[in-house]
């Protein structure tokens, strides 16, 4: 019988099966424990419910009665906006003043109610006054952020908040809001609550309630609103200033699209219908709002809404004191209006102006258009806050970045047309505004004269990321694309006028950046301070010295003179910085500038972006800037810009930017950050040694009489072609190819001190660059007073026979030899003299012998000098070698004779007999007389170079 062991299966089964029930005692214990747990849970729930009910009852008892809803929904206090001196700019009127038209729900179109519900509270008809799901979502967001960032308010809660509660954002207020919303939902129908909400909400432009909104925006009763008009209005309450179709139609249309999309999701309309509605053109009613500084007021409203929310702003009875100076604002509006009217013939219809205090960033004036109420120019659009291309007005940001990287006001730049590679695209080739090249310029001239090509070269040095970093550091946040190129420095990126004015403010106050501030303080209706602008020291974003370099350049009227001319519109009656900007197609004209007390930026153009008729920044925006600055500063004492510590001045060449020499044009003084002034002398205005033979740069071997010194304005090699094409001759590049080595003039055989006789071959070298001829010469004694010619040849020779010297006609004695080379310009070089002694045999007479008894052993010899004619060796031609010898130094010897003209030597030298008489027994009958060298037919005359031993 087969037995199977299942012990391991038993173990596995015990691991994977439910445990068996306990025995009776264990079962009773288990049931008892479960009863205790269930009882405890029930007790906890009972206590929690009781506690919640108690909290609810307590909170509800402290809240206003829901019956007060209709009464309170019609009462609130308006907010007032003032300038810095208490002049009222704008008031959000109380609806009892006529800005609300209450309409019953039955008159409100269904699609408008649906649009409101889809946008504000999709579960409105189903929730108990609050949305648990939205609260949980908001709770998670708030816990994650550590503060109340999401309200999750239903329509009912918004009614409660606007009617009964303060606008504070706290947990306790949210609890109260939810409890009161529940109570109101119990006592009022949903349609009643919706009616109150629609008649209570603020729709911007002083329109409270949907009835007034229909009249304000479309000038029609609410019941006649189309779906397109209804969805536009329904999206406004979330941000009345942001989604204002008069001032920001693009944002309002985006918001309308969101409302339509929400209606599609809730099943109110079809997707195709939503697309059709969104494409419909809206015809807004003409708007007439009586407010002072309207563009500035709208800007302040946006700031308030963003910080405090719409309910608090429009219902809280706030007193908002702004930074605006109404007197300055009125002056700005007048000047803008007058100057734009003067440009009408040049198709320039609009302008904007921003004025700031550079010391604290406060906005003193803001004109967003030439006429707020002129629809033809989109007058309600605040161009001071719209993105436009700044043209050259952005160049200072590029140059200050270059200063941080080591450039100075005297850095040399060549303003010539240049192509800049652009990857796969055609090369970028900028041009100056006058379509000309200006050659060598320094940074001061390039920036002050607003030259484009140097600016692009500067950006190539700084790099686009480097300029963007500087712009962001100065507070320009609009430049945030990733595709900018080198045209960025010419205005190839969009910025706002307010940003640019604030960036210039950082230059004005020594590199401190201050945010533009529109509000001084906010009070409630009883005068209690709610908020106040802090006295900011500003963030130091630039070295004060680099900021001052920008100030110094752009306040230099003399530097801008070549572009703008004398007495131009940019000059004020006091020191002032100013920079213009113009886009290539004349769509934008800018002028921005400052004194220590005021920064002003001006834009001129057209709201529809059409080009103007050749309106430059100086022609369009310049007159507005000039007149505004002069009027506003008339009663303010003149102040100079303070020079920061750590600056130095130096006298420089105005062309090269280096230390001036006596060859440079008149010097100018330039200012530098300590340690950055130039130390090298100017290398552009130079004298260059030129060889007249080769017309090349003189080498060290060129004779002095063929070298001329010539003045040049010499540019770096890469600009040579341009300079020559513009009438600026450049010095030769190469050194002289003719005079390339020193002369080689030497006699190698015979050597100094040798004895010679007969016809003597003279060995050596005779070579000079640009050779005309060489002469082999001799002279009497070791220090001749003149030299005779042995031979003359017109070709160089190296290490060969210079000539043969026939010494036979000469008297025996000490002579000097030399070889002299001559070039075609009369320059010569002579070898060191070689002293030799001529020792030709002396001819003797044979005596007649007489036999005598006694032989005589002594004979007397008498030497009688006889002058003879010396023949000059005939000239022969020999090849000219090309190698350069080194002259052989002469060995000094003691002179033994003095040469005299045409007279035999007065001193008769003792010459040993040429032969020894044969001893004979008979003395000779005649005394032998040795022959002295004959007198030359002509005494050797000094050569033109005398005893030359080198170049003459």
What does this entry look like structurally?
The protein is of the alpha+beta class. The chain has 24 helices and 29 strands. The strands form nine sheets. Strands 22, 24, 25, 27, 28 and 29 form a six-stranded mixed beta sheet that branches. A five-stranded mixed beta sheet has the order 2-1-3-11-12, with helices on one face. A hairpin with a 7-residue loop joins β24 (771-780) and β25. α4 crosses α11 (249-265), α11 packs antiparallel against α12 (271-279) and α16 crosses α21. The longest helix is centred in the first third of the chain and has 39 residues, at 24-62. The N and C termini lie far apart (139 Å). Residues 1-22, 94-98, 147-151, 165-171 and 849-952 have low confidence and may be disordered.
Short description:
The chain is 30% helix and 17% strand. It is elongated, with a radius of gyration of 54 Å.
The biggest sheet amounts to:
6 strands, mixed
Structural class: alpha+beta
Number of strands: 29
The overall pLDDT average reads: 81
Number of helices, where a helix is a run of at least 4 consecutive DSSP H or I residues: 24
Radius of gyration, in Å, reads 54 Å
Q: What is the terminal separation in angstroms?
A: 139 Å
Uncertain regions: pLDDT < 50 for 5+ in a row? 1-22, 94-98, 147-151, 165-171, 849-952
**Multimerization state:** single chain
Write the layout of secondary structure elements.
Layout: H1 7-16, H2 24-62, H3 69-72, E1 80-82, E2 88-91, H4 110-120, H5 132-145, H6 155-163, H7 171-187, H8 190-200, H9 210-218, H10 227-234, H11 249-265, H12 271-279, H13 294-308, H14 310-315, E3 319-322, H15 326-342, E4 350-356, E5 363-367, H16 395-404, E6 412-415, E7 420-422, E8 425-428, E9 439-442, H17 443-448, H18 452-462, H19 464-473, H20 497-508, E10 512-513, E11 519-523, E12 529-532, E13 539-540, H21 544-554, H22 557-564, E14 577-582, E15 588-594, E16 599-605, H23 617-633, E17 647-652, E18 668-673, E19 685-691, E20 707-713, H24 720-725, E21 744-749, E22 755-756, E23 759-767, E24 771-780, E25 788-793, E26 797-806, E27 813-823, E28 828-830, E29 834-838
Parallel strand pairs: 1-3, 22-29
Antiparallel strand pairs: 1-2, 3-11, 4-5, 4-16, 6-9, 7-8, 10-13, 11-12, 14-15, 15-16, 17-18, 19-20, 21-23, 23-26, 24-25, 24-27, 27-28, 27-29
Helix pairs in contact: 4-10, 4-11, 6-7, 6-8, 10-11, 11-12, 15-23, 16-18, 16-19, 16-21
